[in-house]
Each structure stands twice: as structure tokens, then as C-alpha cells.
Amino acid sequence: MSADLFFFFHHLSKATMTQLETAMAMLMKTFDTYAAGEGSKDTLSKAEVKTLLEKELPGLLKSAKNPGEVDKLFKSLDFNGDSEVDFSEFVVMVAALTCACHDRGSKK
Fold first, then answer.
1. Residues forming a β-bridge with 44
2. CA distance readout (Å), 81 to 11, 19, 34, 76, 87
3. Which residue segments constitute the domains of the chain, with CATH numbers given?
4. Which residues, by range, are in coiled-coil regions (predicted)?
5. Which end of the chain is more exposed for a tag (fewer CB within 10 A), N or C?
């Protein structure tokens, strides 16, 4: 994200933010909170992804019938194969899960 956009969201008061701006700010804050746990502050390790999923999306893990699903999800998120999930990869996951929950996937 550009520094200007980050500055913009960081300094808006919650009273003036739209719902979408608030959602975007929460995505950034959530990512940054979990990325700060270990290693690089710009990426999520496998352990950080697991913690994020356990705390922020507990229903997703409960519905997974196989404990290996987290590993599978992590590998599918790590588009560039660097064994970490960056913010862009994280946003793709959130968007895909949102589409699945909203039941508006591609209807061709």
C-alpha cells in the first residue's frame, strides 16, 4: 500500500469513515497485528496464519474436517512460494472467503 493511502486511513476519524473505508482499515490492522508476531513485519508466517485463522475465523477451522486444511490453505495463499503470506496474498484470501460466504462466486 502506498504511504499516502496508509496515512489517509490512519488519520481519518471513525466518525468520518464509510463502512468500506472502515473494513479496509480493519483488514490492514488485522494483518499488521498478526504479522508483528514473528519474523518479517510485512508477512505472515505459517504459524501466524494459523493463529489469525484460529482467532479471527474460528468457524472456518471448525468446519474443516481435516487438520491438514490449514497447510493446504497456506500453500494456496503463498502464490510466490516464499513460505510467507504477504498483504496482497492475505487480501486475496479474504476476498475469496467473502465471495464464498456471500454465495456470489462465478455463476457461468
1. 85
2. 35, 34, 20, 9, 14
3. 3-102 (1.10.238.10)
4. none
5. C
